[in-house]
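Following up on my earlier message about geranylgeranyl diphosphate. Here are the inputs again, as you asked, copied directly from the submission form:
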Amino acid sequence: MIRNKLIQNAREVDKFLINYLKKQDRSLLINPMKYGVISGGKKIRSTIIFDLGKIFNLNKKKLINVCASVECIHSYSLIHDDLPCMDDDKIRRGKPATHIKFGEASAVLAGNSLLTLAFEIIADQNYSINPRIKNQIIKSLAHCSCHTGIAGGQELDLRFEKKIKNLNQIVNMQKKKTGKLFSFCFYSVGLLAKKNDRESVFLSSLGEEIGLLFQLADDFLDIKGNKRMVGKPIRKDNKKGKSTLVSLLGYEKAQKYAYNLKKKILLKLKKHGKKASDLKDTIEFILGRNF
Ligand code: GRG
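Thanks, got it. Here's what our run produced:
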């Protein structure tokens, strides 16, 4: 069931992105950009946005630009994450990483182009939402992506290699590196649903917690996953001396931590009753996933 939902949502976002790029001038970077963002990937962040839309009665047309821009930022982060100066991976989504297929310079430029395309997609005049909300979405996307978010989290991740870090330091790093984009998904849907400040803060932190849960699952897959299913090299964290909750607590205790975190998240969704059932399914998938 969840698999069908993911495939269907990914198709819709891919279709939007293909059409969007078709309307732009051709360039040499279109192919590495498409390779990075369109071909493959679960597009789980888009599914979360659509699930949230169900809770707040927002249709997909209102949400699709946010989904596409999030997938551009996410794919950009993966392209750059695989570069030799970062995590130095050659395989991504079961295929050669973008820099292996197109060369390092093109991968850097395609990543940069996806970053800026994300903002263009929200700012687009055909995306007809309230201009004040549009402005807030753009500001939040920038805040979650830059040194206060993903990029800052990645810097910490690299600096923490082969160092002993405590639980708070690791959680803070992972909430930035992975959690901030999930946080943006929640916050932007809250903005579109015209939620007040208190609810927006609540949604942002819930998104961050789901991002942390997602990262924990990623760390479990690095140890017990199947390389073909995961689509990228596994058993790398230990070799690289990555600071993760698994390396700090051990596999069993980290699993317990993740299970409790999931329980806490699901409890917070209780107030939305049946409307949250799709999001609850996605959260169950996030921790139980094998890809
Ligand atoms: C993007 C602003 C920005 C900066 C770049 C390189 C970098 C700085 C950040 C790396 C962040 C990173 C790679 C975090 C890991 C998040 C994670 C667990 C990714 C895997 O996501 P999936 O499983 O991937 O959703 P698919 O392939 O399904 O799309």
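One observation from looking it over: The longest strand covers residues 91-92. Hope that helps, and feel free to reply on this thread.
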